[in-house]
Each structure stands twice: as structure tokens, then as C-alpha cells.
Design goal:
The protein is an alpha/beta fold. About 30% of the residues lie in helices and about 25% in strands. The protein has helices at about 80-100, 115-125, 155-170, 190-205, 215-225, 240-245, 255-260, 270-285, 305-315, 320-330, 330-335; strands spanning about 5-15, 20-30, 30-35, 50, 55-60, 60-65, 100-105, 130-135, 135-140, 150, 170-175, 210-215, 230, 250, 260-265, 270, 355, 370-375, 380. Strands 1, 2, 3, 4, 5, 17, 18 and 19 form an eight-stranded mixed beta sheet that branches. Strands 11-12-13-14 form a four-stranded parallel beta sheet. A three-stranded parallel beta sheet has the order 6-7-8.
Amino acid sequence: MHPRTLLRGGNILTLSSMGLLENGNLVLEGNRIIDILQTTQVDASSFDQVIDIGGSYIIPGLIDAHAHLCSATAKVVSEDLIASGTIDGVICARNAVKSGLTTVRDLGCKHGGIYALKRAINSGTLQGPRVYTAGRNMSGTGVVEAWRNFSYDGSDAFRKAVRKEWQEGADWIKLILSDGQWGERDIPLMTLDEALAAVSEAHSKGMRVSCHIDGERGADLALAANVDSIEHGVELSPIHIEEMVSKNIFYIPTIKSYYSEVIPVWKTNAEPKLRSHRASFELAYQRGVKIALGTDVNYLKQWPSSALIEEMKMLESWGMDKLQVLSTATITAAELLGLETQIGTVEKGKVADLVALRSNPLDSYEALDDIQLVIQDGKIVFAPPESPLPGNGEKLTTLSPKPL
């Protein structure tokens, strides 16, 4: 018999057809939401624990769809890098949970430390979000390997590389199809045969494929290879957008990470690139491409909720309303991961990944910087010391979610 918990009296942003429930009650049993009650009369005696959340705003656990937990990866692999990068991952994972991130898609680590981190979180040894990882990034020979990349030649080599990541624990594969290392030039970094081999091998193993692209030729390659998500997508044409809609390809624009007067990696003035990026985003949004939020930041250098807030503000400034913006880090990101029946909304039957905020994030995204409580997999994993809500007792804490 699983313990039953009552979260009483909160304002619940369900992000479902139920909308906002004022003074609502959530009934949790084990790691699931088993009921949502709209009444002030609830018999508290039938519950193992009751947590009063009156005045708080409850949202689904947040998802960063483009993160790098083991942050220091743009170096030559060495014993020191593996050790220090994995320690970075432990810190970043802890920071993520404290920011209300209960799930993260990690899109690139140069070594196997990310898999050790994922296993430790799943086993309960470490505290952190659910991690869905792409392991080592893949590209063709000649790509800049000081980044996260590993180079391969030929279809068979890419199939072998995909199998290696799958064996180590990858959920995704990430391909570097084009990037800004060559300034104004848009140079594909793999052949179509290589990309098709990687994608088909990944799909045969139940993995999805993301791709880093900057220019139109990279987008051509991504769409021809039938990838599942496009990262950044700085220069997407109307034809690309229409094909993304027809093929149900997700778009993670990571706007803030590109928003600078000069982006050194491009070796060019950023302004025209940013205009192209915005045009790509606006067209994708208008045509109904599924857009998920990704910060693409280093959680050691910027607190995760701060990164989320900045990216949300950019999404809104480029045309989304606040509810749609919040959905990019919940509903759409869950669908990207294939977890839409499990997380992403506050609904009966779903996993209890919940964040209690002191104020309404639809009034101001800064609400995400004022967290009262984080519940992951049905258990409290974080409550600030000054929070009036419980969360620091042994009975109410846990170190890991269950893999979904």
C-alpha cells in the first residue's frame, strides 16, 4: 500500500483542459497523482501526510530540452576531464532540481561520465533530474574536435558509433550536421548516406535523433535524414518549416545562447544571423512546428532557473504568449521525449512531478526564482530552509526519480 499525500489549497496551473484551479487539492499515492479535487472540504484524516500549499501556484515539473550537465567538455578527453566533468555533472544535476527541473535532455558530453551520472541518479546515489542523454556528439571527419564532437567516416562507422552510445546508455543520438565554425559559409559536415545510417540505426534501437544545424544546407540534410529534433536552426527556409510540420520534427531554438552582439564561433557579426534566427522562429511558430525550451547553458556559470527565465523572455519577445512559453518547458518538452502520457501537465494518473511557487509564473517568469517546494516522482526533493512548507524531514525526501 503506497502512502497517500494531500497537497491542500493551492492554485493549480494544470496546463490541461482543466485550466487554472483556484484553491485546489492534489491527491498523491506513491509517485502518481490519483485525484484533483475542487473543494474546501477534504477529510485530512484519510491521508498519511497533509501539506498545506494555500496561496502557492503549482505547476508541472520543468524540463530543459537542451542542457549539458557535464559542462567542461570542449577539451581533449583525459582522465582529468572525465573526473572533473563528472563532478561538474553532480553539481549541475543538484542545481537543476533546486530550480524545479525534474527532467533534463542532455545533448552532449565528450566522455562516459554522463552515463555514470545518469546511473547514479537512477539508483538513488545522487540527487538530480531524470536524465535523457545523447552521449558523445557525432560528425564527419574534419569537424572541430575541440568541441564535443567525435569524427567518423562512412555509414558503417556511424552505425558502429550509434551502437556504442546505445550500449553505454544513450536515449538520444546527436549529430552535428553544420555549425558556425566557418563564418558565413554553410558547409554540411556529413554525407546524406552517413546521416541516414546514423538515424536508421538509432531508430532501430528505440532512440531519437537530434541535430545541431546553423544553415540551410544543414537543414536540408537534417530533413532528408528524418531526424527527430533540430537544435538552434538559425537559418530555416519556408520549405524547411513545412517539412518539419509534415514530419513532426521538433524545434529547440535556444535563442538566448545566440543572443550577442558578436558570436566568436561564427567569426562574423551576429546581427544578420540573429535576424535570420528570429525569422526562422517566427515562421516555425506561425506554422505550428512543435517548439520546446532549451537553455544550452552551463549550470555552473548560470543558475538554472535564471537561464530558464531568460529563455522564456526571449520566446515571448519573439511572439509567444506566457502560457505557450510555459508549455514549451512542460507539455511540448515532454512530448519531445515521448513522455507526454507521464509528465508535462498536472493531471490524474500522471507522475507527480510538481513545483510550488510563491507567485503566478503567468504574471512574471521571475516566479520561477521563488520556489517553495519541488516534488519529483511523488516525493519532496527540495524545499528552501525558509520555506513554510515541509520538506527537510527524512520521511519526505528522496534522492532519485524512477526512470520512466
